[in-house]
Amino acid sequence: MSTASAVRARGPAKDRARKRAVILEAAEAEFADAGYQGASMQAIADRAGVPKANVHYYFGSKEQLYRQVLEDILGLWNDFLSDVTPADDPALVLEGFVRQKLRLAFARPRASRLFAQEILRGAPVLAPHLEGDMRRWFASKTRIVEAWIEAGRMAAVEPDLLLFTIWSTTQHYADFEVQVLALTEKPRYDDAAVERIADFLVNLVLSGCGLERAGVPLERIAHG
Amino acid sequence: MSTASAVRARGPAKDRARKRAVILEAAEAEFADAGYQGASMQAIADRAGVPKANVHYYFGSKEQLYRQVLEDILGLWNDFLSDVTPADDPALVLEGFVRQKLRLAFARPRASRLFAQEILRGAPVLAPHLEGDMRRWFASKTRIVEAWIEAGRMAAVEPDLLLFTIWSTTQHYADFEVQVLALTEKPRYDDAAVERIADFLVNLVLSGCGLERAGVPLERIAHG
DNA sequence: CGATAATCTGACCGATTGGACAGGTTTGTT
DNA sequence: AACAAACCTGTCCAATCGGTCAGATTATCG
User: Fold this and answer.
1) CA atoms of A208 and B223, how far apart (whole Å)
2) Is the C-alpha dihedral spanning B33, B34, B37, B42 positive or negative?
3) Which site in A8, A62, A86, B151 is 20 to 30 Å from A55, CA atoms measured?
4) Looking at residue B16, what is its pLDDT?
5) A31 contacts A23 by C-beta, under 8 angstroms
6) Closest alpha carbon to A110 in A47, A166, A42
7) What is this structure's pTM?
8) Taking all atoms of strand C, which protein residues have CB closer than 7 Å?
9) Beta-carbon separation of A212 and B200 below 8 A
C-alpha cells in the first residue's frame, strides 16, 4: 500500500497513515537539507513535532525511513512519458516532457535534491533501482526516440544523451537553486522566471532535434 | 635554487606543502564520497596515511580543511572563458567552453561532486563566493553573449540560461555518473563515450544558438 | 466491565564524533 | 653542544549519534 492511498483510508488506519505522513514529510526535508549522514533522527522528530522514539516506532531505523522517503519520491516520476508511442508527435512529446519535468522540479525541489544527493553518494540505496526499473524505463524511451529517427521525424541525435540533457537541465534549477538565484541576483523563482526557463529549454531541445515549435521559428545565422 | 645542503634538505616549506597536499587530496576524496557531515577526520587521516591529530595540526578544524579543499576546487574553474571578448567568434568560444568544462568533469569528477554537494546543502560555505567572484564572472560572460546577440552574430537566447545549460549538462556526467553508467549499461566512461558526449553537447548548444559547426550541418525537419 | 493489544515516550546505552593537549621528536641556529 | 622553534602523535574528553526498552497510556473488543 502506497503512503498516498493510505492517507485517504478510513478508520484507525487513517490516523496511523496521517502520522506516518507527517514524519515522512519532516524526514524528506531534513534528509534533503542535511544529507543522509547529516540528518539526525532527533532533528527529524523535532521537525515532525514528535518524540524521537516515536519515529523509531513507526519506521524502525534511520535507513528504513530513508528508503521509504526515496520510494515516495520515485513515485513522483512514475508517469513520465508513461503512455508515449512511436506514433506520437516527437515535438509535442518532448515539449510536454520538459515542461512536466520542470514543473515537478519547482514544485518539489527537496525531492529533487534528495535524489541528487543519493546519486552523488554513489546510489548506495538506489543502485538496484537504477539497474532495474529505471533502466527498463530508460531503454523503452530511447527505443521510441530511435523509432522517430528511423522514421525521419527528427534529427539523428543520440537518444540516451538527449534524455540525459533534459534530465540534467531541468533538475539543475532545483538542485542548484542557490547558485542560480545568486548568479541571477534574484531572491526566489517567480512565475515569469519559470516560464522563461521552460520556453528556453523547450526551444533548445527542439532545435537540437531539428524540430521547431509551431509559431516560434528560430532564426538561423550562418557561421563563419 | 641551489643550497649547500642540497641532499639532506629540500626546502622545509616544500616538505610542508607536500604533506599538506597529501592530506588535501585525501580530504577531497572523502568529502566527495561521503559528504561534509559523512566524512570523518579519522577517515581522511587514514586515506592520507597520517595520524588524525596530524590533520588537525595542519588544518586546524574540519571546517577549515573543507574550506581549503573547496578553495582549491574553485581554482580549477578560474580560467574558464577568462580572456574572451565580444570580438571573438561565438561558435568557437562556446564549443571550446563546452569541451573544456566537460574535460574537467571527466578528469576531476570528485571535485565536481564535492562542489555539487556544497551547493545542494545551500552553499553554507560558498554563499559569499557565489554572490561575489562567481557573480562577477557570470555577469561578465552574459554581457559578452548579449553583445554577440546585439551584433546579430547568434540567435537571441537568454544568456544566463545558456550558461546554466552548459554548466548543468557538462556537470551531469560527473555528478550523476552512477546513474548515467547504470542506464547506459556500461562499467565506466571510455574515450569514445566522452567524445560522443562532447560532440552531442556542442551540437546541441550551437544549434540552440542558431549556429552551426563547420562541416556538420544539422538537417532540419518541419514540425506538423 | 476486564483484558488484550496497540500506541507512545522518557530514560538510558554503547559507539563514534571533532577536537584538545601534554609531551616526545626532529630541525634550525648559534 | 646547547637551546629554541617547529613538528608530530597517543591519549583523553564532552557531545552527539542511532537505537533499545521498560513501563505508562490509550484504543479495541468479548
Assistant:
1) 13
2) negative
3) A8
4) 81
5) no
6) A47
7) 0.90
8) A 12, 15-16, 19, 50-54, 56-58; B 8-9, 12, 39-43, 52-53, 56, 60-63
9) no
